[in-house]
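FW: tagging you since you asked about this chain on Friday. Here's the raw sequence from the shared folder, copied in full. Didn't touch anything.
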Amino acid sequence: MTRIDAHQHFWAPARGDYDWMPMDEPRLARRYLPADLAPVLATHGIEGTVLVQAAATIHETEYMLGLADATPFVAGVVGWVDFERAEDRHQLERLAVHPKFVGIRPMIQDIPDDDWMLRDDVQWGFAAVSELGLTFDALGFPQHLANFLTILTRYPDMRVVVDHCMKPRIRDHSAEGFAFWAEGMARIAAETGAFCKLSGLVTEAEEDWRVADLQPYADHVLEVFGPERVMWGSDWPVCRLRTEYAGWIDVAEALTSGLGETGMDRVFGGSAAAFYGLSA
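HL: got it, structure written out here
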């Protein structure tokens, strides 16, 4: 089975549109380009990746597609369009023609209004994603789970993947927080056809995290979605806030070791290929 990293980033902070990025954080605020990642992928036998947007601009999407054109291992690009501008449908239609453009991701976690996705003026975007056969990466926090469930049931033909397990607050060690997150994720898994990315967990844990801190979250996602709807992603280079690429892939393999060869093949490649329609 081809191994695929379903979630990684490249960026150049000097471009000036990474508004979320702390410029005094040396592990993040530097250029990350294909040449930085290629040796790591080769070491771990990963043949393809999905490159995901990190800036809320069309310009960054164009930048990523340029990198993808020059980088054989980038199998797909998840970009961005402005859902608050209905006239941006033509941008989405234009981008959809690119052979490596697979879908979009609004940066919902960074929008102050938790109910933003329910606004009437942004509904065209969800409808257009469905109509154009593109994918939707759902980026948010546990407080967004109920609203995402509303959107996913409103647009049942939209192919959706939950990014980073919806970023549970692992560092809080809260039983109530776990229960709230677990119920919301179980409902999305049971009531929709959404997939889930096994990614981003280390950066939601404390700096001195242990595998045991992550295991209940991985177990729950694998139980409710099943390995056929779970895909592994590195979230590189964001993962470097807690561990290097090699460290996270080793932990992810440990978290999924009970699945057996067939289940692990699905998580580490098959699910991403099926969801994003990758030829790799």
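FW: The chain has a mean pLDDT of 97.
HL: agreed, and The two ends are 10 Å apart (CA to CA).
FW: great, closing this out.
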